Amino acid sequence: MIAHKNWFLPAFFLLLFLGTAPAKAQELLTLEEAVKITLERNFDIKLFANDVQIAENNVSRGNAGMLPNVNATLTNNNTIQNSSQTRADGQVNEVSWGRGSTLNYGVGLNWTVFNGFAMFARFEQLQELQKLGEANLQQTVLTRVGDVISTYYDLVQQQLQLRAYDTAVSLSQFRVQTAKTRFEIGKAARLEVLNAQVDFNTDTTNLLRQQELYRNTQIRLNEIMAREVSTQFRVVDGITINDQLTLAQLSSLVEQQNPALKAAVLNRRVAELQARQVRASRYPTIGVNTGYSFSHNRSALGFSTLSTGNGLTYGVTAAVPIFTGFNQRRNEQNANIQINSAEIQFQQVNQNLQAQLAAAFQTYRTNLTLVRLEENNQRIARQNLDITMEKYRLGSITTMEVRDAQLNFVNSTVRYSNALYQAKIAEVSLREISGNLDL
Question: How far does the signal peptide extend, from start to end residue (predicted)?
Fold first, then answer.
């Protein structure tokens, strides 16, 4: 493991570092808390969780067509009309504004008991779609947690750089005060004061830019966590990197855990089940029906002015496809093409993930080397700055040499923190690709 903690500052810089004290009064947000808040509040995660719930609700035998449909019906029609009826013997019967009514109601059941096993394929397909939704949710969670970790450690490196820039400002301010004192007692030219003031202004500008970047990154992290974007906080001071990851182990995890690869497998299975449903159309469809009905008919004129009836009905229906304009063959061909496409997509996703993994692992190894190199450079630059400032205090070194040591310290610190961040991001990327992103 490669761990980074705050470097020790000599007593000379202790007072110069007090400018960062107000930031320490802010809330300390740990990575675990940031991830927890994200899992609870992130909008994308909530939306995909809802999709999973819908897919789970859809997994039912009724939705697959295995269960009967029962319907209750009611029909009530009324008439008011003038009627005339001539009988065979010549008698004419007439009714003015005669009232008539028809009332029918009942309960009916229709049940498809066989449709070429399409209903069973549909039920399996609904189950696979639920798993697909869960894989998509897992991918979303991985992506958003990866975003949180990356943004969080970006803040960590920026916080370290802020302290370096703050130290540079404090040193430049000390140089300005020292130059003014030397000028007042006649030991330095005014040019030294002006140069020190320019350096102080430059360092202050750099600090303000870094503070702006840090604040904007805070806003970005708050947005991912779906909380008030104006919330201010500070992060931990250390970046710990796992330098023990191996390509073989990660490649094995990709095949077992990567949600994108799982989704590709499930898409292929869904396509196969869809093809089974299409082929089922070649078989007969058999259904049964039954019901109970009541009828009540009243008329103002006729041989029968009132008739009623009630009773049970039942029957069997069967349909056998004979010719569908070659649509069945076309549908089966398209279904087989969909299976082939799903297989190609699986191979494409697998190859893409392996390529991402290989590239990320190379970046990971390179950054581990850079971390060690920049850590050594930063340590040397710090020692050089300590010695230079002591010589400057004694008046045995030029201001140009002081400025060089100062810039070397700031630049080495920025490079070191950036190397730590890049190595951590490479590690996070490897874990995200393998589907095993932990804290």
Answer: 1-25
